[in-house]
Amino acid sequence: MVRGRKRHVVTDTVGLLLIVVVTAANADDGATAPRLLAGLPAASFPRLSVVWADRKYRNNKLDEWLAGQRRLRLEISSKPEGAIGFKPLKKRWAVEQTFGCMLRLRRLVRDLERLATTSAAMVKLSAIHRMVRRASPPRGRKKFRFKRPPKAAA
């Protein structure tokens, strides 16, 4: 029995969640990616053509699946050779930010869910909370009111 879970997510360029798949921790990322990307139908996401991923998603099974369909193209972003320490990767910051914001929901910090579908529902709930926070202005702050400068005496 494998303890732990992996959360595979697809976000847009702003970091809002599009789809989530929760698997056991020993699941290979590249083998899980076709299941994840199959949940993005062309009818629902007509403008989606490029998917950015990290090196873990480079896999023969995924390459075969992508060759079978012509809509999506996978681009791998990785750290530059010889780079030491954390370096924010181009196009990957949105996903990393999404994972960071997910951990604000207490139930996602520890893996307490019995079913993977319940864990996926908690990830979606976290994404809804994030969208609502972005949509509504924070309380207590004064709204900026533009005031015209006084007219100069002629």
Automatic annotation (TrEMBL):
Domain called Transposase IS4-like: residue spans: 3-125
Signal peptide span: 1-27
Composition bias, Basic residues: 139-154
Keywords, alphabetical: Signal
Pfam family, one: DDE_Tnp_1
Start and end residues of each stretch annotated as Disordered: 135-154
Protein name, as recorded: Transposase
